[in-house]
Amino acid sequence: MGSEMCIRDSSYTGTWSAGIGEVAVLTPVTGGPNIPVTASCSITENAPSDALLVDASWSWNAPVIAPATAMVGGPQTPAIFTVTNSAHRVFGGLSVTKVFTGVGGLEPDAGIAGSWACTWDTSGTDSGRWMVPAAGGTTVLFSPADERVPLTADCTVIEDTLLPGDLVDGSYAWDTPTYVPAGGSSTLVAGGNTVTITNSTHRVYG
Q1: Which residues contact 31 (CB under 8 A, 6 or more apart)?
Q2: pLDDT at position 21 over 90
Q3: What is the 3-state secondary structure (H, E, C) of the chain?
Q4: What is the C-alpha separation between 157 and 116, in angstroms, rounded?
Q5: Which residue in 182, 183, 187 sits closest to 57, CA to CA?
Q6: Does 67 sit behind a cis peptide bond, omega within 30 degrees of 0 on the bond before it?
Q7: Phi, psi of 56 (to 5 degrees)
Q8: pLDDT tens digits for 143-192?
Q9: Which end of the chain is more exposed for a tag (fewer CB within 10 A), N or C?
Q10: Confidence check: pLDDT of 13 > 60
Q11: In degrees, to the nearest 5, what angle opens at C-alpha 62 toward C-alphas 150 and 122?
């Protein structure tokens, strides 16, 4: 859907509407129902809604209209335009944040490693590894600028099994980690996505 303008002595404007692969029906608004021969015409297209696309991981590109102007050659020679629409993928980002609470016991240089994996559509996949200090921190797994994983992808972040060697001695032990969102699972949305993993320790007594 869009608008038209033709000029020859005066302006003739109107609207058009067409589906994919259809020929538009021009609806005059001003200047009368007839556009004079040799009038120079141009058209525009209203911005289509992203709601017409399958999901939030797609967005419309700017339309390509060709030619920019065309002349009405005669009753059987209309000005003809082709409007080409296309869409591009919209990508998301994901970070992991580590939080440490509890009674202490960490080795000063201890680090926690883990993995992430995302799936989308019927066969899209991506995955990787990460590491942050055991005492806490945040690392970006991928960003929208990386164009790796589209919005609406289902992603899971998990940490490796916690090692006793990352604690100063056997008088400390790891608690079960907690994940937010639950299970470290997140469906990517615009504006950033973070999985937070909290580790804690407790004292072991004899």
Answers
A1: 6, 10, 11, 12, 13
A2: no
A3: CEEEEEEECEEEEEEEECCCCCCCEEEEEECCCCCCCCCEEEEEECCCCHHHCCCCCEEECCCEEECCCEECCECCECCCCEEECCEEECECCEEEEEEEEECCCECCCCEEEEEEEEEECCCEEEEEEEEEECCEEEEEEECHHHCCCECCCEEEEEECCCCHHHECCCCEEECCCEEECHHHEEECCCCCCEEEEEEEEEECCC
A4: 4
A5: 187
A6: yes
A7: -70, -5
A8: 999 999 999 999 999 999 999 999 999 999 999 999 999 999 999 999 88
A9: C
A10: yes
A11: 25
Please list, in sequence order, all residues whose beta carbon lies within 8 angstroms of the beta carbon of residue 143, skipping any fewer than 6 positions away: 93
**Tokens of residue 51, six digits:** 């709601």
At residue 39 the predicted structure's pLDDT band, cuts being 50, 70 and 90, is confident
What does pTM read for this prediction? 0.84
Residue with token string 């869009």: 2
